[in-house]
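Example for tutorial group B:
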């Protein structure tokens, strides 16, 4: 399953730099120089954050010279959030083996009802079987019988569990078959009727199949199944497996799909609607893209690389694509990014069917490759219980990263890994937890949204890949995959496969990265002896330690840039093995160091405070061939250039140079964003140095707003929001909002315009909300900007987008902006506007409404929140309501 994920921001351009920027930049970079042994030895305790840190620790007092090495910062490098709440949930105990299931189903649109009949063949385990307990939520059971004899069977049903009493005990390992007729009217989950498209789609993960099919609904059993689906003649039906028969029956069509290889029932899927099917292949495997008749070109754009992905994953894992076919269907109003239903993936239509102008921001390759990766890891091999679900999601994210790197190049791959590291670090700051974790409050889905299992799972695999090299790593992955195909797994199975392949113990690695939590935080200092050309690195682990997080063992890649070339080494950090938090390492260099890298390539999940001179960082930004190193330099120099009155001019000049001409889009994008931070942190134009920094930043950002890459232009448009009252900036933002080729850039521009030219922002917002576009990009940006505009008529304009006819993104943006504007003394009135949306059909609107009511803090909202809480089935909404009730209670105190 893919979450609804953040959209990437940012490719390169030789832009002309403003004359004032050039005048400052050239002499400073020409000065050259390097840090000396005494400079390196000056490092004391504390630290500036690594670029992998999602938070910025306060920087130390500024050095007065570009060659001085600042002290460590005093703020902690790493802080751990409280463990996510919840109670332990172990693996469900099985009482029978579901061996095969046949489901006949039709969809009653008038009642929004699933009308079905299912036959289940079950086998007793090691003891006699008397009763079969099936998961079946909110159904009307119309008949239960013995499938073989046809005799009616006694049953008990409490609205959640259907207990079928067998006519006679079934001996150990013998089988029985029962037939259940049922219907589920307006199911709260599991099956979704989308009237505007006349499409039905189902969703099983985590435990939602039980809302539309009586079955065993937990991942630790695997079965085969068949679907017989009746649709009108003008519609098609997709399900798992191969299409055995398509039969016309009067004005209807019966579709018979057969899943002949075992999988877990949360992967059961049916999608019906007026689709066209675009045919593709990989070797002899049919590949189909199910899309709307008016979206054929967009579907090819979104799905078209699938055969290349199948080929790559088959070759890397050494296991050919394991199912009869691979279909992908777009779904309207889908509640996730995608879902890996075995051989029949469902994808959110607005994540796939993007227009050409929306690329590269809206590229669907990552989503498509993620769900395809699940066909091996999640479907072929499935987590035995939800606590080990990283074996599904982390692996799919890893294969997503592998395709991204293969398709787009090494720099893109490194930057993608960096994003995963930043996500994990932010997650641990909010709520630290191990990868293997069995606690949740409402639903196991909570495990998916903590920010750990996707990015940290992938990061663990990337770490193993880097340690072993591709050849040995993929041999171990092949062993794991082959040994557990069509079965369920826990983390110990993966550990065993790597040990058997390499002949090494991985007990310590899994203890610190899989069963433990957190990551290492290093304070690194260096000293260089010019006479012996010896460089000494000293690294101290300073992360908070407890029963979940101790000292770490790691092999850290180090690179030193010199005028005689680059020198590389691997520093063996052995904190866990030795109990020593400090590691000292020496290496001989061919010449004095011009730049020093700790963790070249960004393969280690860590945060690092490694004070180096600004001249070293500027050299690193200009000369390092590693994109992660250049981004690190931007991040560290940003803080130095931001200090009011005495900012580091070389740092500012180096960042400006990167924004102008770095060869990789993400470095330019980060440099552009850094200039926005620098400008925002030095608003006082009465100080000459501040005026100079803001003038330079403004000139570079205005130039970057013409970068060929829309991601860089978008970042520039956002950063220009720091220049309130600047007429030239306002003019440029108005131009970008009106005619940039990318609507993402237009959206960023309208948001910044509200900050720069607030007096005329309402007029621009009114114009933008009238624009129709894919996913309402401009309209949403305008509605969001209105949350910061204090003018008569804004509340009424926002209120107009709360109606059901508005798109989901527009409604949620209007809700958020209304809540943001509530400090104008209209809290009670606005809360009353929002409360009815707790009952909206759209779960994202319900979540937005609950969140807004919590922020508004009105006791009058409590009854509406409590009433929705009693009937709400979606755990994400339930958890948001609970948080809102806590916030209102706290506000009252």
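The residue assignment follows.
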């Amino acid at each position: 399953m893919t979450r609804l994920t953040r959209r990437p921001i940012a490719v390169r351009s030789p832009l002309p730099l403003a004359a004032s920027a050039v005048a400052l930049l050239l002499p400073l970079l020409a000065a050259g120089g390097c840090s000396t042994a005494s400079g390196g030895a000056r490092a004391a305790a504390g630290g500036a954050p690594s670029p992998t840190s999602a938070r910025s620790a306060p920087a130390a007092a500024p050095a007065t010279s570009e060659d001085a090495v600042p002290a460590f910062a005093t703020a902690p490098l790493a802080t751990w959030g409280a463990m996510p709440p919840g109670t332990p949930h172990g693996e469900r105990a099985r009482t029978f083996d579901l061996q095969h299931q046949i489901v006949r189903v039709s969809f009653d649109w008038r009642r929004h009802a699933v009308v079905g009949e299912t036959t289940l063949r079950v086998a007793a385990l090691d003891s006699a079987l008397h009763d079969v307990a099936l998961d079946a939520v909110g159904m009307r059971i119309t008949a239960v019988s013995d499938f073989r004899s046809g005799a009616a069977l006694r049953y008990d049903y409490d609205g959640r569990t259907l207990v079928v009493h067998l006519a006679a005990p079934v001996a150990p390992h013998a089988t029985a078959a029962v037939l259940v007729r049922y219907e589920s009217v307006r199911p709260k989950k599991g099956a979704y009727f989308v009237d505007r498209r006349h499409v039905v789609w189902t969703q099983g993960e985590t435990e939602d199949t039980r809302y539309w099919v009586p079955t065993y609904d937990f991942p630790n059993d695997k079965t085969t199944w068949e679907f017989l689906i009746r649709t009108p003649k003008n519609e098609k039906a997709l399900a798992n497996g191969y299409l055995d028969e398509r039969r016309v029956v009067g004005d209807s069509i019966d579709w018979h799909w057969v899943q002949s290889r075992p999988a877990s029932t949360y992967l059961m899927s049916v999608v019906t609607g007026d689709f066209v099917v675009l045919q593709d292949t990989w070797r002899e495997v049919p590949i189909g893209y199910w899309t709307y008749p008016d979206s054929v070109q967009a579907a090819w754009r979104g799905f078209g690389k699938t055969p290349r992905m199948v080929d790559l994953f088959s070759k890397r894992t050494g296991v050919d694509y394991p199912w009869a076919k691979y279909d992908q269907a777009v779904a309207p109003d889908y509640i996730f990014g995608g879902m890996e239903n075995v051989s029949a993936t469902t994808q959110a239509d607005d994540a796939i069917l993007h227009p050409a102008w929306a690329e590269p921001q809206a590229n669907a390759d990552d989503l498509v490759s993620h769900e395809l990766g699940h066909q091996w890891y999640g479907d072929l091999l499935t987590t035995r219980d939800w606590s080990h679900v990283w074996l599904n999601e982390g692996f799919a994210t890893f294969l997503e990263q592998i395709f991204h790197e293969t398709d787009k190049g090494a720099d893109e791959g490194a930057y993608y890994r960096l994003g995963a590291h930043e996500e994990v670090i932010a997650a641990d700051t909010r709520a630290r937890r191990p990868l293997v974790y069995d606690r949740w409050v409402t639903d196991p889905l909570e495990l998916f949204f903590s920010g750990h299992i996707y990015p940290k799972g992938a990061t663990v695999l990337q770490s193993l890949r880097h340690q072993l090299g591709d050849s040995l790593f993929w041999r171990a992955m092949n062993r794991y995959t082959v040994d557990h195909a069509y079965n369920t797994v826990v983390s110990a199975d993966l550990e065993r496969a790597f040990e058997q392949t390499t002949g090494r113990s991985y007990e310590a690695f899994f203890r610190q990265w899989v069963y433990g939590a957190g990551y290492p935080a290093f304070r690194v200092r260096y000293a260089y002896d010019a006479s012996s050309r010896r460089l000494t690195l000293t690294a101290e682990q300073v992360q908070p330690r407890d029963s979940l997080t101790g000292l770490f063992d790691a092999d850290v890649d180090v690179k030193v840039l010199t005028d005689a070339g680059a020198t590389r080494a691997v520093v063996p950090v052995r904190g866990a093995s030795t109990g020593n938090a400090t590691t000292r390492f020496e290496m001989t260099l061919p010449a004095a160091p011009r730049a020093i890298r700790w963790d070249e390539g960004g393969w280690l999940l860590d945060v690092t405070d490694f004070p180096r001179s600004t001249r070293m960082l500027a050299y690193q930004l200009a000369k390092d061939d590693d994109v992660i190193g250049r981004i690190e330099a931007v991040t560290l120099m940003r803080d130095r250039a931001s200090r009011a009155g005495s900012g580091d001019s070389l740092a500012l000049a180096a960042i400006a140079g990167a924004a102008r001409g770095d060869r990789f889009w993400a470095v330019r994008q980060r440099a552009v964003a850094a200039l926005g931070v620098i400008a925002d942190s030095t608003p006082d134009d009465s100080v000459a140095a501040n005026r100079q920094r803001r003038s330079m930043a403004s000139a570079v950002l205005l130039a970057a707003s013409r970068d060929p890459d829309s991601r860089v232009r978008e970042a520039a448009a956002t950063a220009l929001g720091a220049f309130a009252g600047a007429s030239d900036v306002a003019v440029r933002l108005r131009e970008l909002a009106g005619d940039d080729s990318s609507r993402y850039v237009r959206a960023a521009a309208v948001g910044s315009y509200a900050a720069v030219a607030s007096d005329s922002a309402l007029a621009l917002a009114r114009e933008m909300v009238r624009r129709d576009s894919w996913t309402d990009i401009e309209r949403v940006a305008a509605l969001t900007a209105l949350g910061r505009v204090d003018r008569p008529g804004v509340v009424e304009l926002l209120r107009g987008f709360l109606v059901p006819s508005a798109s989901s993104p527009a409604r949620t943006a209007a809700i958020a902006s209304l809540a943001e504007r509530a400090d104008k003394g209209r809290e009670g009135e606005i809360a009353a506007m929002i409360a009815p949306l707790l009952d909206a059909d759209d779960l994202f609107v319900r979540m937005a409404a609950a969140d807004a009511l919590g922020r508004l803090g009105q006791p009058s909202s409590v009854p509406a929140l409590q009433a929705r809480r009693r009937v709400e089935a979606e755990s994400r909404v339930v958890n948001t309501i609970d948080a809102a009730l806590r916030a209102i209670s706290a506000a009252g105190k």
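The CA atoms of residues 399 and 450 lie 20 Å apart. Compare this with the pattern of hydrophobic and polar residues in the output above.
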